[in-house]
From TrEMBL:
Keywords: FAD, Flavoprotein, Oxidoreductase. It comes from the Bacteria. It comes from Pseudomonas karstica. The keyword Flavoprotein applies. This is FAD-dependent tricarballylate dehydrogenase TcuA.
Amino acid sequence: MIDVLIIGGGNAALCAALMAREAGASVMLLEASPKAWRGGNSQHTRNLRCMHDEPQDVLIDAYPEEEYWQDLLKVTGGITDEKLARIAIRASSSCRDWMRSHGVHFQPPLSGALHVARTNAFFMGGGKALVNAYFRSAERLGVKVRYNTQVTDIELDDGKFVAAHIGEREVDGQHVAAERIEARACVLAAGGFESNREWLREAWGQNERGEWPSDNFLIRGTRFNTGILLRRMLDLGADVTGDPTQAHMVAIDARAPLYDGGICTRIDCVSLGVVVNRDGERFYDEGEDFWPKRYAIWGRLVAGQPGQQAYSIIDQQAIGRFMPPVFPGTAANTLQDLARQLKLPQAQFVKTIEDYNNACRVGTFDHTALDDCHTQGLTPAKTHWARPLVKPPFYAYPLKPGVTFTYLGLATDETAAVHFNGKASPNLFVAGEMMAGNVLGKGYTAGIGMAIGTAFGRIAGVQAAASVGFGISPANTESRHATV
């Protein structure tokens, strides 16, 4: 019998598999996707938010624990488990050497990635290189990896894991029979439900305009996170955390593919101009804070607009100050022509821009700092980086909500155990997006998802191995955190 079964194939699952195997347990990893699409949402990532008290290799200056915590507290509005959050924060300061030992390489941030040279360590080759390195290391250590293997059911005995069930399926044109896989312990790391259109519709419902907002969502993450295992765990009575409508939701290019657009579909010029809805009206402060701390609120903001549609508008002054999008913007030499091309109400659009221009109080523009360029007497205000849009050509980028991962998940504790009626399972653990809602009640800040996944993936792997007699004692908290 397998000692530890890992269900999932992203960063958290791989960290769990590697730690359990390093502890001496036999490990099998089940990945729902084909090999070419392995890695879950981790393949679309590019960095890890890291606590550090002094400069460390690719990280400059310092990013101490309390500042990290305050950044997380701000974006979540306080909807976070401080104990679990601080575990992830502290673990982020010391995990990189372990990551390097499994083939992950780091590099300084690209010049267009503003404000994160101090806080985020970037993966050389991005998330795809990271998951490939982990898979290579896992296989080298003897972890058995199976692809095209969607777990459809979990067998429990009074909260204790017994077996995973895999349904009948077609793989490369061949019929594969249903299976039952027993293991002495299990780690659930199979992601959220963002690719389940029916579940999104159920969660978001209809708005006051009679629209079904989720019908217009794009999924910038993996198409394989359909929430089958999460739904089953809810049915089995696992304790739950999070709001099904909360997610890492970004305003992305409306022309992006329905699934797997990844990070390149993001539009990063929002703070350099204004954003209008399809009625030609602004609806939120584009200069509220640095973009890495605010980019993930804009998907939800756009989701609240008519048709779940908006447009980021800039002028020539912004060019060269942000990472260029994949698709070119709509360009025009006049605001009237831009409105015509976008099919926006021309008079209202021009008035919106002119009102904004007239309200700008330009001081010393500096997009690398919280500058003193702001609006006055305008609602909503723009509190930083406010400059009149007066230099043609003008550019527009269409925006829609892009869901990376959902926050509804399984409640857990510092051991990463799954809970049933407040009682921790002795051999069933959870990591990654399936438990990220414990830390992320809402909002997001760049790189925190990988910090949570790495920390709790490693904890889950250690604890799963320990629950079946390998490595530390499951109750030995001090040893566990020294290891992780």
